[in-house]
Specification:
A hairpin with a 5-residue loop joins β6 and β7. The chain has 2 helices and 10 strands, in the order αββββββββαββ. The chain is rod-shaped and about 120 Å long. The chain has 2 domains: 66 residues, Antifreeze-like/N-acetylneuraminic acid synthase C-terminal domain (Type Iii Antifreeze Protein Isoform Hplc 12, Alpha-Beta Complex); 116 residues, no CATH class. With 242 residues, the chain is an alpha+beta fold.
Length: 242
């Protein structure tokens, strides 16, 4: 009789412990599920973005949305902070979350090149050093292109703003010490020759670039994030000092 009583008490105790453990597990699972449903803000692509798009152009192409935490992949971005100078490594489709891995330094993709934005084509021109900032252009830079023609009145005009340089091919320069062998200060490196500069433009713009290279002269100016664009008039000798 006594052994039966002890066995019953043990069974009851085990049942109570099991119920407590089950309750704790259910509560923990519920908490984990609720944590997974907790909304967090992420950037979602609002319209198709071509590969090679600068991060500075993404502000109007993405929007902030609240999604369940469990649906947010690793590397999802909540803002575009600290993404300056990067470009999209691939095309982005509407509805996908913007991941940090999708934005890369242009020079990390293929050495010396950057992606060509969708819808554009590449055209290469051979230009002398003084027309390309002494050879200090790199893939990923944006330039303003000016053209000069030796017509009756000899004129120079602005052809394009925001031209993406996708590749630069040039001979390596040799550092020369301008102050003699006794100085440890390196001299400014001088370009050793012309360079092939490749641009990404539409077919119509590429035709204008080729025409300008064939029958005129081109001059490049490197743009910055604060470059002011004023669309200046064509410059002629008669209007040079006006």
């Amino acid at each position: 009789m006594k052994s039966r009583l002890l066995g019953g008490l043990a069974a009851l105790l085990l049942a109570v412990i099991g119920a407590v453990l089950l309750f704790v597990y259910v509560q923990g699972a519920s908490a984990r599920a609720q944590a997974g449903l907790e909304p967090v803000n992420v950037l979602v692509v609002a319209e198709r973005v071509p590969a090679g798009t600068p991060s500075s152009d993404l502000a109007g192409k993405v929007r902030s949305e609240a999604v369940p935490k469990s649906a947010v992949p690793e590397g999802a971005l909540a803002t575009l902070d600290q993404q300056e100078g990067k470009v999209t490594a691939v095309s982005l489709e509407p509805g996908e979350q913007l991941l940090s891995a999708r934005l890369v330094d242009p020079r990390e993709l293929v050495p010396g090149t950057v992606p060509v934005p969708d819808g554009l084509e590449e055209v290469t021109l051979l230009l002398s050093p003084e027309r390309i900032l002494g050879g200090r252009l790199e893939a990923g830079d944006k330039v303003t292109i000016y053209t000069s023609f030796e017509k009756t009145d000899q004129q120079t005009g602005l052809l394009f703003y925001d031209v993406l340089v996708t590749a630069v091919q040039k001979a390596p320069s040799e550092a020369k010490n301008a102050s003699g062998a006794g100085s440890s200060d390196p001299a400014v490196e001088m370009p050793t020759g012309s360079a092939f500069i490749t641009f990404a433009r539409s077919d119509a713009d590429a035709s204008k670039l080729i025409y300008s290279a064939e029958f005129g002269k081109l001059w490049l100016a490197k743009q910055t994030d604060t470059t002011t664009k004023t669309n200046p008039p064509v410059t002629t000798f008669g209007g040079l000092y006006q």
